[in-house]
Structure formats: structure tokens, C-alpha cells
Amino acid sequence: MHRKHLLLALGLAFAAGPAAHAAEGTVTWHDPSCGFFVLTLPEGPAERFGLYSWKSGSDPKMDDVWEGDIVEGEDIEITNKSSGDKMAVIHWANAKEQAQLVRNTPVQCASKWKKKK
């Protein structure tokens, strides 16, 4: 009898697994010159922002909301919540402040060199 309960529990956990990893983030910075962008991370982790680079699919736009495994995933596919467009991205790092991530983008990112007004 215990075996049936265990199998049922494992089956339910496996079925709920992908949905549990989906999280939402809003684009707060992006630089089309180098392909890097920053998303807000969901409540919970100490780090509030994530740095990503896009590989293929739709380009991110400011204030777009994307969903997927944005907190823990590395080489992931995320979905634009409003349009349904998909984008393959690489998740590089998380940080407490957006400025920390922008400072650590590659040198070819033109907007990291703009003076703040």
C-alpha cells in the first residue's frame, strides 16, 4: 500500500515540476549593441536582478515581462508573457543591484559607457 502512495506522490511532484520553476521578470535594462539585458527576479532571493544574454528569438524590450526558469536556469528558453514569443538566453549572474550587473557586462556593450544624467 505504501508503494502506491509513494508512486502517486512522485508522479504528482514530477507533473508539477515544470510549473514550479516558471517565474516572471521584467526587463529593466538592455543593450542591443551586445545582446545583454537585465530582468527583475521574483520575490524571495536576496538577489533582485539577473543578467542574461539572448541567443535567438525575439529581442527583449524595456518593461517586457518574460517567464521561465529565470532564477536557477543557465541555458534556458523564456516566454514573453504578453506576446507569447520565445527567446533562448544564457543566464549569467544575479545581483542585489542592477548597476553591479551592468558594470560587469562585456566591453562591447555601448550603453555601459554612457554618462548618467
Q: In words, what does this structure look like?
A:
The protein has 117 residues and is α+β, with helices and mostly antiparallel strands. It has one domain. 22% of the residues lie in helices and 37% in strands. The chain has two helices and six strands. The chain has a six-stranded antiparallel barrel. β2 (36-40) and β3 form a beta hairpin. The longest helix has 20 residues, at 2-21. The radius of gyration is 17 Å and the shape is globular. Mean pLDDT is 82; it is low at 12-19.
Principal-axes geometry comes out as globular
Protein structure class: alpha+beta
Estimate percent helicity.
Answer: 10-25%
User: How are strands sequenced across the largest beta sheet?
Assistant: 1-2-3-6-5-4
What is the ordering of alpha helices and beta strands?
HEEEEEEH
- How is the biggest beta sheet arranged? 6 strands, antiparallel, barrel
Mean pLDDT: 82
Distance between the termini: 68 Å
What multimeric state do the chains show?
single chain
Number of domains: 1
